[in-house]
Amino acid sequence: MVEKKGTLVIVELGLLLLLPLLSGALDIVKAREIAARYNVTCILVFGDSSVDSGNNNFIVTTIKSNFLPYGKDFFNGRPTGRFSNGRLATDFIADAIGYTKTIPAFLDPNLKLEDLPHGASFASAASGYDDFTANISSVLSLPRQLKYLMHYKVKLRKLVGQKRAEDIIRTAVFVMSMGTNDFLQDYYLDPTRPKQFTVEEYQNYLVSCMANAIQTMHRLGGTKLVVVGVPPLGCMPLVKTIMDTTTCAENYNKVAVSLNSKIQEKLETISTTSRMETAFVDAYGIIQNAINNPALYGLSETSKGCCGTGTIEFGDSCRGLETCTDPEKYVFWDAVHPTEKMYKILAEEAIKALAQKFRV
Fold this sequence. Notes:
Elements: H1 5-18, H2 25-37, E1 43-47, H3 89-97, E2 119-121, H4 131-137, H5 142-160, H6 162-171, E3 173-177, H7 180-187, H8 192-196, H9 199-219, E4 224-228, H10 237-242, H11 250-273, E5 277-281, H12 283-292, E6 301-305, E7 330-332, H13 340-357
Parallel strand pairs: 1-2, 1-3, 3-4, 4-5, 6-7
């Protein structure tokens, strides 16, 4: 048991994150038992629109979703800046642990100090591992997000004292989810990076940026990290529309597969050379399987989003549009982002993958 302590921590961390999204109440009970065992009360989130709870509402950028139909299935049908019809996976994680039903945006001026011990999202829609990606859309780069983590620590210390604050950070689950925009809004649209890097060189650069960020997280006290891989880029309705294809654009998907492989290799190295426990969620495989076998998940529409035509609209171009009658049947909410249902599926399938990997 002692030799395998690190592996068991990651296994149980994976269970903590994902079991609650299975249907039974017992899963939530188990998750809370695991949280209690490791004193996990806090989720700290970094990334892009897949995990942005609304930080972009409070910065000067055009990349926002704080209007309907976004949020139509959120509590009280309220748009919050989340790029989906409802909650994100990180919100369900927080709900499972039992301290809060959602992860708040750190920049929200209405954020209550007493909520800080249970976590915050520093994520910013349209961001990426590459600082240049964030600069294109005037959003929060990964280093900027980490600077806000420092601000978070200062506020936390004032609230609960230095020792308790350090304990909260040490036992917190750090979640990082990004990489999509580095290609879709940067490398494939802006001429700067292609002049500097081949695709493979750019992937290596992104992984080095990720590794630097993880070093900073570790230096600031983080010990548990879950990295969400890049989804199948070529299956996004917007990409298929641009590429004028009815099937997934395989050249885009190959780039995603390759990047995910490099991310996993780096995480394994980090786990063996530092005291940072890491886990990887294969968003690519999970979403691809849902697209290829929709009936297994109670889905029926995999080729277009729920908002508008579902082929090109996302963000501001989705504002005020009519939506499909049943988002529960859709993989995509808009032409880029998943539905709340798909976030649940991601969680359900990821726990199976983690359980198999570590033979739970």
